[in-house]
Amino acid sequence: MESTDLGKSPRDAFAVVLVAAGEGRRLGADLRKAWVQVAGRPLWWHAARAFADLEGLSDLVLVAHADDLPALRSESGALLCASAGVTACVPGGAQRQDSVLEGVRATGSCRHVLVHDAARPLVRRERVLSLLDALATHEGAFLAQKVPSTVKRVTASGAVHETLPREELRLAATPQGAPRALLLELLERAVAQHLAFTDEAALLEWAGHAPLAVEDDASNLKVTAPEDLLIVQALLSRSLPRIGQGQDIHRLAEGGPLILGGLEIPADVHLVGHSDGDALLHAVMDALLGAAGLGDIGDHFPDTDPRLAGISSKLLLERVLSDLRDRNLAPHQVDCSVLLERPKLGEWKARMKASLQELLQLPADRVCVKARTGEGLGPVGRGEALAVHCTVLVTEAGPPTAPA
Length: 404
Ligand code: MG
Description:
- By secondary structure, the chain is of the alpha/beta class.
- The chain folds into two domains: 14-236, Spore Coat Polysaccharide Biosynthesis Protein SpsA, Chain A (Alpha-Beta Complex), CATH 3.90.550; 242-395, CATH 3.30.1330.50.
- The chain has helices at residues 43-49, 69-73, 75-84, 96-106, 125-135, 180-192, 200-206, 226-238, 279-291, 297-300, 313-326, 349-360, 378-381, and strands at 14-20, 37-38, 41-42, 57-64, 88-91, 112-117, 141-146, 151-154, 160-164, 170-179, 212-215, 242-254, 258-260, 263-265, 269-271, 329-339, 367-372, 385-396.
- The strands form five sheets. The protein has a seven-stranded mixed β-sheet with strand order 5-4-1-6-10-7-11, with helices on both faces. A five-stranded mixed β-sheet has the order 15-12-18-16-17. A two-stranded antiparallel ribbon has the order 2-3.
- Helix 1 (43-49) runs parallel beside helix 3 (75-84) and helix 9 (279-291) packs parallel to helix 11.
- Bound molecules: magnesium ion.
- The site of magnesium ion (MG) has 5 residues, from strand 12 and helix 9.
């Protein structure tokens, strides 16, 4: 059945211009704002993803700073663009309005253009759809938020002139949309007259149009200060944990103690290994490295390296955690199973868990160490070896910090 039969007409084709050309580097890490990494991707990527796959989308043009174009046109940049649904990248201009004009010029044939700020990565798709619906009946429309606080007009010294009726006030957000032909004409006219408007709604108002404010919610925040980034980080990282799994098996030999989970467990056997043989910490490290895409423990600590002979695995784990920290990652949860025929580890489970909690800086409810036997089967069952299986979740540790 055609969608028109349901009383709903197919959406007009629209393009999105994503403005990411700003020079600002105040958010740290010496990156332009649009390139600050959140959940492993730049801010502009998250902003673009809000539009990708929307019905009717014809082009998604990324307007970038000219200095960022080579990176965007590299092989990895092209992959990043493709995964965000970006169809073209163009250099921006000196001011936001110049960048918008370059972006609109780069769009192909379509009915409407939506202009969106790359610093708003949390815009909700249902709000974008409401905006597109509004454009079907209005010459221009923009997402706007109600003002949550009472607003005062004050003098320079802070004396109150008046209290403004906040039900009449709106905070203009993006996206902002208009017919492509109208937007292009007004932008070219404004630039020719050396007039600079800070948003497309103001441009439309200047030309005598009455754009519609479409209700938005406060989650569509604009990242301007480091604390905004913390919120965005928390919301975008929450759904993007990284998973890693690790396994290890070590041969058992006569004579204790058994070093496991960073503890010395009294036993008449020990684990054979180039380091201290702590198979539990090795499996945790392998899982952490896997979650960070950093290869395996052998890549980092080859058993041919004489400096690692007899080394405490706790020191190796510290290095792995440091490698993760360098990538803004931290362990979030660890679940381990130790398989050993004897000695029985039952009474040591709680202490191994406490040791892992301390080493990984995790609360009790996110660390588990389980113990079981090999049921008499295989090398574990025959008492020849100890094996460990481990699964970890790794999340972003926090916002990037500026280099000292
Ligand atoms: Mg090992």
